Amino acid sequence: MTKQRTARRNSAVNPDFSPAAAPADEQSRIALDESARTPTVVYFATAVVWLVVGSVFGLLTGLKFSLPDLLGTIPALTFGRIRPAHLNTIMYGWASLAGCGMIVWLTTRLCKVQLQLGWFHYVSALLWNLGVLGGTIAVLAGYSQGLEWLEFPRIFGAMIAAGFLLFAASVVQTFRVRQVEHLYVSLWYILASLLWFPLLYVVANLGLYQGVVEAAMNWWFGHNALAVWFTPIGLAGAYYFIPKVLGRPIYSYYLGLLGFWAFALFYNWNGIHHLVGGPVPTWLVTVSIVASVMMVVPVLAVAVNHHLTTVGHFRMLRFSPTLRFVVFGSMSYTAVSFQGSLESIRSFQEVAHFTHYTIGHAHLGVYGFLSMILFGAMYYIMPRLARWEWPYPSLIKAHFWTTAIGIALYVVTMSIGGWIQGLQMNDAAIPFIDVVQNTKLWLWGRSIGGTLMLIGHLIFAYQFFSIIKRAGPRRFAPALFREPAPIEAVRIEERAAKAG
Amino acid sequence: MMFFRSFLFFFGVLATLLLGWAGLVGMPDAMISEIPPPEGLQRYTAEQLYGRSIYIREGCLYCHSQQVRPEGFGSDQARFWGRPSVPGDYVFDKPHLLGTMRTGPDLLNIAARQPSEQWHMLHLYDPRIVVPGSIMPPFSWLFEKKPTAAPGDIVLNLPDSLKPDGRAIVAGRDAKALVAYLLSLDRTYPISQGTATLKGK
């Protein structure tokens, strides 16, 4: 292997690798953080507000399954309006804006250059937030477009798209003036998503189709929003933070490469498994099922790569909040993806489709995987931007356990309840209303799990705004879950020094 | 070399998305979009279309699908929810309302199963009057309270215990339109092979 290829491989597997590692690195990192600070904090702060708003909508949605007359006389708070309000505030408010913040910071670090066109992000954050706010109010007021994942009226969709383009322009410009020769895996996912998402979102919002074709477009979009935007955010984060916190390179560059291209190739074709058994050409559904099963390839590549990076270092999960959240997210990614491949198969869908099982699956993905990684990223990034450590480590612990137990409870009860619902729905001897009755007990699981998650979010929001205000006790070492024994403390400090 | 790699990355990434679009949306568009409507399918009237917009406004689609599965796939046939739906059944639908969830039953042929206007009115006003144990939300804002009903009003036949201080509950414009839309949902007409269906085997 030539020297050049070795160098490329090293920089591609290790976010820290720099041929001329020098003490000057510390200074340059501070300068990079300085350039990304305000945009990242603005994205993060607004994302946290949407997280709390979105989870209030979510909890209310869940409660209405058990208490259908709850707030039943207020049109704006009827189930059919707050459910899309929940989905859109979480996806376009929380996950997207938090993802934007993470991408801005990651790009400066991975390109080793200060953020370019930073002011674009102020306009972008404004447009994006106004789009989500306006769209949510419109949905609550009854002006939904009526397409799942695309409920926002077009004017607000256009604001989000414009915001995204400005955001992308700044990130791409930063990438163009990069000071690194080779690109780390996270950057592949980021760059690809910048190209994919605006195209997808604009095409889907044009309203070109009608009838069954529109349904195909709807689920091509719905599933691809995950494929080309939300999942790349999560994977870019996992690929960066796991090796970063552990202070060791990612296990394999080639697995990363295989994982990326298989992901790009197969994930795009998944969407139509949402219409299995429906009035669409059978070959169309079959294509999507095949692609969904093929997702095993990129998922396995990512899972093996991350696991073999972490293996032997699981002890670190006891200390590092970032690592614990990100590894939880990464494991959820593996679980939810294999579940998704299985779920696309016809005999499985015959039971699971049209039931709460699917809702459990969706939450394992967007929450267990994506949101947990975003929390982990924020725990890592914020102290470096605020120049203030997290003031209350015990609240980080409370945040982790409320959300981890909350999502586990949610997914388990919804999966069991949904499966029972599916089996009973397929038995014509059981009257439909009995099927509804028999799921009621399980549906409490979503409200209890949702309550736990909401408590976790309030705890997180409190600590988040504390760190912005530099409030609370001042700490001089990273906030860890527990004080390590002296020998471990040395190791963790070494890693922290390496990680910067 | 660097340029070549960037080029490969850019177009590779672009191609994956565009291929997916062409395959999953473009191909069915080419196959289905020219389908003539089946003979039994009526265009929506203005009132039904307005009712359809109420169906969207109140988010009915999040709990009710509008697609019937074929024999051997689920129990739709055994539950007499209608013949399996075909692309032709939806040619007038924009936005589509196929749905992905059956918290409540499928509604593609609800008018054939439940043709009573009064039943639908009561069910929308308070679902638990007609379906004990239902978890559907009430939509009382689609109705008006009146001291006395005017001629031509659709009055709800409520049990005395549910009548608010003796006043009449009558269907508002939105309730009438929504029920008109629900009563248009009947796609049990026969379809001739080859016209309305392109479902491959």
Report on this structure.
The complex is a heterodimer of chains A (500) and B (201). Chain A is mainly alpha-helical and 500 residues long. Helices cover 76% and strands 0% of the residues of chain A. Chain A has helices spanning 3-13, 24-66, 79-111, 120-141, 154-176, 185-205, 211-246, 253-267, 282-294, 296-310, 321-344, 346-352, 356-386, 393-425, 432-468, 486-499. Chain B is elongated and about 80 Å long. Chain B has a two-stranded antiparallel sheet. With 201 residues, chain B is mainly α. Chain B is built from 6 helices and 2 strands; from the N terminus they run αααααββα. Chain B has helices at 2-32, 46-57, 110-113, 117-125, 127-130, 173-182; strands at residues 143-146, 168-171. The chains are: A mainly alpha (500), B mainly alpha (201). The interface between A and B is large, with 78 and 72 residues.
Low-pLDDT regions of chain A:
none
Oligomer: heterodimer
**Ends apart, CA distance between termini of chain B:** 48 Å
> What would you report as the Rg of chain A, rounded to the nearest angstrom?
22 Å
Helix content of chain A: over 70%
Number of domains of chain A: 1
- Please give the CATH class of the domain at 46-182 in chain B: Mainly Alpha
What is the CATH domain class of chain A?
Mainly Alpha
How many helical elements of chain A?
16
CATH superfamily of the domain at 46-182 in chain B: Cytochrome c-like domain
Helix and strand element order of chain A: HHHHHHHHHHHHHHHH
Low-confidence blocks of residues of chain B: 195-201
Radius of gyration of chain B: 22 Å
Number of E-type strands of chain A: 0
Average pLDDT number of chain B: 91
